[in-house]
Amino acid sequence: AELTARTDGLFQLSWPQVTPTTRTTEHTLIEVPTGNVHDVTEHILTTLQTHLTNTTDNHLIILTRNAVNTPTPDLAAAAVWGLVRTAQTEHPDRITLIDTDDTLDPTTLTGNEPQLTIRNGKTHAPRLTKTPTPQPPTWHPDDTVLITGGTGTLGTILTRHLIETHHIKNIILVSRQGKTPHTLTDLNANITTTACDTTNREALHQLITNTPNLTAVIHTAGIVDDALLTNLTPQQLHTVLATKTDTAHHLHELTQHLNLKAFVLYSSLAGTLGNPGQANYAAANAYLDALAQHRHTQGLPATSIAWGLWANTSGTTQHLTTTDHARLTRDGITPITTEHGTALFDAALGLNTPTTIATPLNLTTISKNPTTHPLLRNLIPRRTPTTTG
Length: 389
Ligand SMILES: NC(=O)c1ccc[n+]([C@@H]2O[C@H](COP(=O)([O-])OP(=O)(O)OC[C@H]3O[C@@H](n4cnc5c(N)ncnc54)[C@H](OP(=O)(O)O)[C@@H]3O)[C@@H](O)[C@H]2O)c1
Description:
Oligomer: single chain
CATH topology of the largest domain: Rossmann fold
Structural class: alpha/beta
Helix content: 25-40%
Bound molecules: NADP nicotinamide-adenine-dinucleotide phosphate
Number of helices: 11
CATH superfamily of the largest domain: NAD(P)-binding Rossmann-like Domain
């Protein structure tokens, strides 16, 4: 029963085969190039802006290769998936996102499945599914854990959890300002707070080099700068991307030699479902999920947790209005309490899978919603067909 409680709200992304309805529409095919995450996402952002501001324009098909549903994702293309998933929430039924292996013509696949992968001539769609049962966590009191963004709301909750529940003695909190939160002063552990902009590779290198016996890295640093996609500036895209993606990539490279036991990335449900006004943030989080997959395939520790909304107000969620909260409730997204969130953290780490989605969902609400998000379709009980006669 305890394990059930811990995994309630924990999901993974699966790719069942589907037979989408086909539709012949006037379409514009946009091929996503390969390259650096900043360049590629900016290119797709500006291309989408051109098409979406012209309301009479065609249906758009965004075509990627190796972005998702692969053990070796192209990280930039994965970020494009986050960006486009948000574009789809802002412009319903205008865009189909397809990751292809070139074994099927994508141009008729603009029907009821807005996101698809083509593999060996078959189509697959993303769906949230329940996770398997996790193993217990394997922390040791002598572990030294570095937490980027450790002074923030979730970083502070995590620090308390690691100390009180797992008895970890050495924690390094990193943030640009580097001020120890006053809420942590009662804790009996060696907490060091360091001022470091983690997007700065050299500064981060110094910090890691000067940390003896580092055993785990948890990347929670993140910022938001919301705008609807058609108003989003390249500057807003790059700053929000950098905090998550550049930091994550630096951490990935700078800790290769350390034999870490955990490498955790705080990602967001926005990267998986898309979220209106957060194309930049969704892109950044989808990149984190892909980096975790990439590391996992290389045999390195990796856990990306795509969190839903936490109940505690924080830097990344304080701007949410009553309307935003009402929309989330309508979508069945239940806020995560501290107790549940820390249990989900432990469970996600015990799954030994690179990407996990952590969000309690109200399935009753979701099943009543006439426009259930396509990724949630498999979670709601199928309606029994009624026969009339
Ligand atoms: N809260 C939620 O409901 C929620 C939901 C889904 C995902 N998440 C994710 O969880 C993480 C933590 O979120 P939060 O809500 O706790 O946010 P928060 O309270 O705003 O904390 C963010 C932390 O990141 C630090 N930071 C920002 N930019 C940095 C940089 N360049 N270098 C070093 N540190 C930096 C901030 O400190 P300084 O300002 O001093 O740098 C702060 O400590 C984020 O990655 C967020 O995307 C949160």
